[in-house]
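Annex B. Sample input.
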Amino acid sequence: MLAATPTLTNDYLRFEDLGLSPIALDLGFFQLRWYSLAYIAGIIVGWWYLLKLIAQPGAPMAKRHADDLVFYATLGILLGGRLGYVIFYKPMEYLENPADIIRVWDGGMSFHGGVIGVSLAILFMARRNNLSWLRIHDYVACTIPFGIFFGRMANFVNGELWGRETTVSWAMRFVEVQNGNAVLGPPRHPSQLYQAGLEGIGIFLLFWFLFWKTDARRYPGMLVGAFLTSLGAARFIVEFFRQPDDHLGLLSLGLSMGQWLTIPMLIAGIWLIATAKGRAETVKPVPAADAD
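Annex B, continued. Sample output.
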């Protein structure tokens, strides 16, 4: 439910006072944006962490497989994220202007689409190398919080995807476009930071514990199930503080599109966790000939 419109005062921090810019480097003929750096950082740090995970006994793939996976997963993130946004959020608009689909520099990426894209990339790589798709997914799930954290911090730097109106003391006023004019908007939840903390740092700590302090990785599907469940729950909760997309608003039962898209994640995650121990006997190490 949307909070009541607060009375505007000068007590709230204005986003513009932070002096943040979406452009990290401007050479005139070339601009490097923080959002692009967030993708690069998420992929590189995730790759580095994945190599640490597969160095442990019983890993489902070798280093050379992880190196190949980075390429396929990057394609999955970009293509899945973009097509997911097109299909889930603005299908009719892009149907009328299909050439705009490739205009990724204008913004528009779906996290849920990116998850599907990465899953398909893992499936392709696993089948190509006769490896366990589910066990690889368990390991990759541990690395995704890095990308989520960097991505949400980039959203904050861009001053986009902010939250609903509120009167909390840490509310922030963002520059918004109203009737074609840029104006200082009402106090809002800095929901980008909520997501960076809960979906990024919080879920990373959870998976650090599950991987390094328990035997969860020995049950195929346990970790990816925990990822879908924890992320789905976190996203569902944060959506109550995040401003719904203007062209969609709130949908059935007063839920946002982001919340509706988490429901299949929650169902799949709970099922994977509930059935994981029954798949324990299928765990097999990477053949010695494939190990690096």
